[in-house]
Design brief:
alpha/beta; 11 strands; 4-stranded parallel β-sheet; binds zinc ion; binds nicotinamide-adenine-dinucleotide
Length: 376
C-alpha cells in the first residue's frame, strides 16, 4: 500500500472525497502552486469570476506574490485579504473585516475564496465563504502540516471568547491543493505539531502506516519532501476514509478526536498559550492509550508504542505543568462530544480499531492524569 521514494514517477496525486453534498478532489504533490490557475479552470472557475485570496501575515510575504502573479497571468482578478497570524484571528472581528473587504472589493455570488494558510486561515476563510451571500465556493490551499487534517472534511468556523469553534458550518471546499514544498518554510515547532495529527491518523486507522512512520521518522523530521508527501498523502487518505462515511459527524467521524479530549482540556487550561494543538493532543493520545488499556483491555504495549513514536517526533508525552485535575476535568465535562454529563473518550482496542466510549468513570480519568503528570 505504501510506496517508496524510488517507485514514484508522478508529480501530483489526486484523492477523491465522497460526501453527500458534493464530491471533491484533494491534490497532493511538490511544486503544485503553479497548477492553481489550471485547476481553477478545470473546476469551471472562469476568469470573469473574482477571486478573494485570504492569507495570514506570515504566509503573505512568503507565497502571495507568486500566486498572485500566476493567477493574474492567467487573467484572473484577485483581491487579497491578510489577517494577523495566529489563533486570535479565528474571531468575529476578523470575519467582520473580511465581509467589509469583500463588499468593498465588489465580490458577488460567483466569486471564489482561496484560503492560503494553516488551519486558522482555512477555518476562518472557510466560514467566511460559507456565510458570505449565503455561501460561495472556496479552495483550501494548506500551508502547514497540520492543515492536511483541517483542510479536508468541510468543518469551518471561528472561536467565541468563551470557547473554541463555537460558531461554524459544514462547507466543503471546491478542491484542496496541498503543495508539500510550502512546508520548507514552516517553523520547526509547527512542523512537529503537525506530526501529531499524522500519528493520530495512523493510530486510528492503519497499522502499516504506524510502522512506516517509525521507519521514515528521520527523513520526515529532516523534511525530505517526497517522504513528507507520502506521509501527507496517507494522512489525507485516512481523513478522507473517515469523513466520506460521515460528513456531519454523527458516528464514525468522532474517532478523529482520538487524543483530543485531554488535548483540548490542556489547550483550554493553558489558555492556548503553552501548547500547540499538536503538542496537546500528543499528550492526549498517551492518555487515551492508558485509558484504552484500562477500560478496553487494549494490549499494554499500546502505551509504549504510542510514547515511542511520539517521542521520535519530538512531541511531548507528559504534562509539564501542574494544572489542577479539577480544571482539566471541568473542561472535559464541557466537551461538545460529552453526552449527558458523562465523560466520553475515543479509545483504541488496538492500533487501527478505534471507538467512542461513553460513561467513563471520573476516577479512571484521574488516575490517567496522575500518570501523565508523574511521568509514570
Ligand atoms: N476544521 C477542521 O477540521 C480542523 C481540524 C484541526 C484543526 N483545526 C484548526 O486549525 C487551527 C490550527 O492550525 P495550524 O496548526 O495550521 O495553525 P496556524 O494556521 O496558526 O499556523 C501555524 C503558524 O504557522 C504559520 N505558517 C503557516 N504556514 C506557514 C508556512 N508555510 N511557512 C511559514 N509559516 C507558516 C502561521 O502564520 C502560524 O503562525 C486551529 O484553530 C484548529 O482549531 C481545524
Ligand atoms: Zn486536531
Amino acid at each position: 500500500m505504501l510506496i517508496g521514494k524510488e517507485q514514484r514517477g508522478f508529480k501530483m496525486r489526486e484523492l477523491r472525497v465522497q460526501t453527500k453534498s458534493r464530491p471533491y478532489s484533494v491534490f497532493v504533490g511538490i511544486d503544485l502552486l503553479t497548477q492553481l490557475p489550471s485547476l481553477l479552470l478545470r473546476h469551471e472557475v472562469q476568469t470573469k469570476q473574482k477571486l478573494f485570496l485570504v492569507t495570514d501575515s506570515h504566509v503573505y510575504p512568503l507565497y502571495a506574490n507568486d500566486i498572485l502573479g500566476s493567477l493574474q497571468a492567467a487573467g484572473y482578478d484577485v483581491h487579497i485579504a491578510v489577517i494577523p497570524a495566529g489563533e486570535k484571528s479565528k474571531s468575529l472581528e476578523t470575519l467582520d473585516q473580511l465581509y467589509s473587504d469583500a463588499i468593498n472589493a465588489g465580490l458577488d455570488r460567483s466569486s471564489v475564496v482561496l484560503a492560503l494558510g494553516g488551519g486558522v486561515v482555512g477555518d476562518v476563510a472557510g466560514f467566511f465563504a460559507a456565510s458570505f451571500m449565503r455561501g460561495i465556493p472556496f479552495v483550501q490551499i494548506p500551508t502547514t502540516l497540520l492543515a492536511h487534517d483541517s483542510s479536508i472534511g468541510g468543518k469551518v468556523g471561528i472561536n467565541h471568547k468563551l470557547g473554541k469553534n463555537y460558531m461554524g458550518a459544514f462547507h466543503q471546499p471546491l478542491f484542496v491543493l496541498f503543495d508539500v514544498k510550502l512546508l520548507a518554510s514552516l517553523p520547526e515547532r509547527e512542523l512537529v505539531s503537525g506530526f501529531a495529527e499524522v500519528v493520530k491518523h495512523a493510530f486510528i486507522w492503519d497499522k502499516q502506516f504506524v510502522a512506516w512512520l517509525e521507519e521514515n521518522n528521520k527523513a520526515l523530521m529532516q523534511r525530505d519532501l517526497p517522504i513528507l508527501e507520502e506521509a501527507i498523502y496517507q494522512g489525507c487518505k485516512v481523513k478522507i476514509s473517515v469523513v466520506s462515511d460521515d460528513e456531519r459527524e454523527n458516528g464514525i467521524r468522532a474517532i478523529l478526536n482520538y487524543g483530543h479530549t485531554i488535548g483540548h482540556a490542556l489547550e483550554s487550561v493553558s489558555e492556548y498559550q503553552f501548547y500547540t494543538h499538536g503538542e496537546a493532543i500528543s499528550i492526549g493520545m498517551v492518555g487515551a492509550a492508558m485509558l484504552s488499556v484500562d477500560v478496553l483491555d487494549a494490549p499494554s504495549n499500546l502505551i509504549q508504542d504510542t510514547e515511542t513514536l511520539l517521542r521520535k517526533f519530538s512531541l511531548p508525552i507528559r504534562i509539564e505543568n501542574n494544572w489542577s485535575d479539577e480544571a482539566l476535568l471541568q473542561v472535559m465535562k464541557r466537551d461538545k462530544k460529552a453526552k449527558q454529563g458523562n465523560y466520553t473518550f475515543v479509545l483504541s482496542e488496538e492500533v487501527g480499531k478505534t471507538q467512542v466510549v461513553n460513561g467513563i468513570p471520573e476516577v479512571k480519568i484521574r488516575e490517567v492524569l496522575q500518570k501523565l503528570k508523574r511521568g509514570g
